[in-house]
Amino acid sequence: MMAASSTTASEADRLFEILNAHSAHPTVLDAAGREFSDAVKDEVLVRVARMFDPPPHGALLNRLLFILTERNKPLVATAFIANLRSPLPEARQASLQGLEKLDHPALVPLALLSVRDDVDGVVAVACQILAAKAKGDPSIWGLLRSAYVSRIGRKEFYLSNSILEANGVAGAAAEK
Amino acid sequence: MLVSDTDDQRQSTNSGLPAGSPDVGDRNFGQSNHRIRLADLEGSVEAEYAPTTGAPIKVKLPMFRRSPDERRRLSLQIFVLRVAAGGNGVVPTTAGSDLFDVELREIRQIYGRLGIKVDTVVAPGTAAANIVTVGGDSIVLIDPPQGINPLNVSFNPLGGANDESRLGTLFPALPDTIRIFYAGGLASGNRAESWPDVDFLALPQHGACFANRVAATYNVPHEMGHILTNKRSAQHTGHYFAPAGAAGARLRNDQNLMRNGTSSVEGVRESKRLWDEPDGDGVKQVTPIVGSHYTHAF
């Protein structure tokens, strides 16, 4: 990618600061999505996609969807995939959710990778994605069932287990 | 000193006694002359003076003046999205869960300091099957409306999604009541967000907070603070902005409930204080809170 002009770079600094803030009101994010040019958004995305140490935090990844354009979609997807194994659980969760929003073609295999995560929020997103597919795929159903059984009664997996229960994975009717 | 939570109660303090006294210097909780007491806004303070001659004198005063009554009430409508229709809430709602034992306790301790009694209310006509009552507090479980992902509640331009407005419309507020919606995640990536009247009166979610589960410490009390202080988002995003202050002033950012970003643990020095001195933007906190239409006469 070509070097950004100085104007684009300073605007990108400003947009990055908004997206990277500890908290950012949704209306501010919404406005940022409309205010900044596509070139500025792309410049920010390049920066985020390159971040490794420290890794981008979850909220920053969540907020990439506010600057999504048809053209920068592949770059956004790259940033999400690169952070599916982030050391930050919120970043892993945001990445998987982001790929779901993008309707990424590899969503199911990537969600399968996350079922073994040790953080409930990440597992919950994976279960929500997979539960919808599981009814037509006995292998996925079986995996979710096994995951549920192995974590049953563990409060730290309350949310993911609740999602599996709501989708019938826990019940006898779900046995396949 | 009277305090409203056990962290403050257990803080060691200087007795103020002169040198030579056995209790000189810092005294710890449980020791003689440790003079911090846990108080309740409906409680009272009693003092007794026993002169060397004559009868002892006793005075008993309520914590907050009664006539006129200094105390205020604050009602909350708490909604918890279910993971799917008929499923569990996105957060546990049983007795002993953090929602009741941590979140509501923190809310009561923080606003109790100002003489505000917090209760929970449910709109008339709410189906009994959706109401969970624990220890006198009631919350409402709600099925996620069609198109709303309970793990990713949006207010963003993707497909025009505006879940928070929809929820605000579908679950309207009782008069002068703050609504708190618990989701399994917010598309903004925030731990929580709120819609104060001053900036968002025209929106159906005004006076509401949206929280990503029962997250870090003081999270929802902070969002309630945005609604109650009603500080414009144009002024340091509605957050506390420490004043330059005179030498020795202790109106620091880190201990204020409305700083940008709350503490992650509870404690004496954490972000739980509200003050009535103007902040760097000239905005007070206690006066607008007790004067807010969201607080009612006791």
Task: Specify the overall morphology of chain B.
Answer: globular
The coarse overall form of chain A would be elongated
Query: Please, what is the average pLDDT of chain A?
Result: 92
Order of helices and strands of chain B: EHEEEEEEHEEEHEEHEHHE
The secondary-structure class of chain A comes to mainly alpha
What is the overall number of helices of chain B?
Answer: 6
Look up the CATH topology of the largest domain in chain B: Collagenase (Catalytic Domain)
Secondary structure tally: strands of chain A? 0
How would you describe the overall organization of this protein?
Chain A has 176 residues and is mainly α. Chain A folds into 2 domains: 1-91, no CATH class; 105-171, no CATH class. Helices cover 64% and strands 0% of the residues of chain A. Chain A has 10 helices and no strands. Chain A has helices at residues 6-19, 26-35, 38-50, 58-63, 73-82, 89-101, 107-114, 120-134, 138-151, 158-166. The longest helix of chain A has 15 residues, at 120-134. With 298 residues, chain B is α/β, with parallel strands linked by helices. Chain B folds into 2 domains: 2-62, no CATH class; 72-242 and 254-297, Collagenase (Catalytic Domain) (3-Layer(aba) Sandwich). Chain B has 6 helices and 14 strands. Chain B has helices spanning 6-9, 98-112, 163-170, 197-200, 219-229, 286-291, and strands at 2-3, 13-14, 26-27, 37-38, 44-49, 57-62, 72-81, 116-120, 131-134, 137-142, 178-183, 192-194, 208-212, 295-297. In chain B, strands 7, 8, 9, 10, 11, 12, 13 and 14 form an 8-stranded mixed sheet that branches. Chain B has a two-stranded parallel ribbon with strand order 1-4. The radius of gyration of chain B is 22 Å and the shape is globular. Chain B starts with a strand and ends with a strand. The A-B interface holds A 22-30, 33-34, 58-63, 65-66, 68, 90, 93-94, 97, 101, 121, 124-125, 128, 155, 158-159, 162-163, 165-167 and B 82-92, 149, 151-152, 155-158, 164, 184-191, 193, 199-200, 213, 233, 237-238, 260-261.
